[in-house]
């Protein structure tokens, strides 16, 4: 329990420093700054694998699945790469949401900060129940596997060009529940006009992003649970990937058109993990196989997007 408290305290302290010190003065996040922060978060996440090894080697943390230190590290890195790769698809949606609600770049970091803070809470709840379900009812893993295969098929066939947050069910319900103003008021989420409190586009974008992340978690958490049911590894790999999502967004959101083949990488990853879940009781693949498939899929998608010229 102490290890969990220390990790959560570390996350909260860094988030406080992020908004209160590093980004105290609101400004547009340039690609160079985003690249530096992305490198920092990836380094922190990969370095944390050393902490994972130490915790399992010294038997400081509970080990319900009986992992060796080496296996624990491989599962952590694999889970982190899965969440990081699926976050790329989230970046596409966030860009559409910001564009739809006309959120100025100077305020986008603030929205993502609070969005990620909420995402951490929801992910923790979903991970807790996901691990509990798999531990208590082993057959749940087959449902997760079929769901991931369905998600991969849907991602392969879907066309996100028609997605418009302003026509979404969520936005329509928000307008029914609470007054919404169409104009920005600095970085404020709420404004009082003519004695009536109203939500600004900044708050609406935050809610839509928050709910969108929950939908993405329905894919990513079962995917990580296919790698391991160890709650600490699932939680830490998931959270550290989410914390790097903001800088990743500012780094690659301006290059979305260049990553037009990355969706096929995500399809391969989801399909592989789904099949691994379905055959988990019959075929036991070494952990390096999963890590290789995920890494090769991502690299192939990036190379294809870079090297193959767009016919349009």
Automatic annotation (TrEMBL):
GO terms under cellular component: membrane
Organism whose genome encodes this protein: Maribacter hydrothermalis
Transmembrane domains' residue ranges: 6-22, 34-56, 76-99, 111-133, 139-156, 202-226, 232-252, 264-283, 289-308
Family under the similarity heading: Belongs to the TerC family.
Major place of residence: membrane
Subcellular location(s) per record: Membrane
Family annotation (InterPro entries): Integral_membrane_TerC, Integral_membrane_TerC_rswitch
Name of this protein: Tellurite resistance protein TerC
Lineage per the UniProt record: Bacteria, Pseudomonadati, Bacteroidota, Flavobacteriia, Flavobacteriales
Record's keyword terms, sorted: Membrane, Transmembrane, Transmembrane helix
PANTHER family: MEMBRANE BOUND PREDICTED REDOX MODULATOR, THYLAKOID MEMBRANE PROTEIN TERC, CHLOROPLASTIC
